[in-house]
Amino acid sequence: MALEHAILVSLLEQPGSGYELARRFDRSIGRFWTATHQQIYRVLRRMEADGWVAGQEIAQDGRPDKKVWSGTAAGRRALVDWLHEPVEPETVRHELAVKIRAAAFDDPSALVPEVERHRAEHAALLERYLVGERRDFPDPAALDDQQRLQHVVLRGGIEYERMILAWLDDVLATLHRLGTPPPTPSTPGT
């Protein structure tokens, strides 16, 4: 997926300034696609040149003018074309998992603080997702189709974080059980 597609989805859902779009990425779209503010502005300019988005200057009292972006018909067609392309399953690169396997060659308990740090970060992210769910989807029965799709993506993020937390709890229990370093292999002839 290109950043362009994530931006198109956001702008077709609701037009906004580059700043507002960056905040959406920080708050919701960032759950599944991250981008810096600079990347967003750079891609918006490229998308405007391609005719996928249009910007309208809005005057503001006492502040610089802002540009409000919206998706165009050409942008919507590009998004629909992309929707019909097959998506390959993602390959996961998980450095912590490699470190956990490597703990067999050292004191496994030495990895506990790192796993606990990861666990705390995932627990905080899960809490942010749950707060966002309560704030943005207080009455699931009253959602329109667009909101239902947004909510199902958020629920996927919630379940992913719950799965990661359960796995990290399992890792911590395993590391605590192992707790002692393996013996140092002896060198032949010593």
TrEMBL record:
Residue limits of the Transcription regulator PadR C-terminal domain? 92-175
Q: Which organism is this entry from? A: Kitasatospora paranensis
Q: Which domain of life is it from?
A: Bacteria
Q: Which Pfam families match?
A: PadR, Vir_act_alpha_C
SUPFAM superfamilies from the entry? Winged helix' DNA-binding domain (SSF46785)
Q: What is this protein called?
A: PadR family transcriptional regulator
Lineage, highest ranks first: Bacteria, Bacillati, Actinomycetota, Actinomycetes, Kitasatosporales
Domain named Transcription regulator PadR N-terminal: which ranges? 7-79
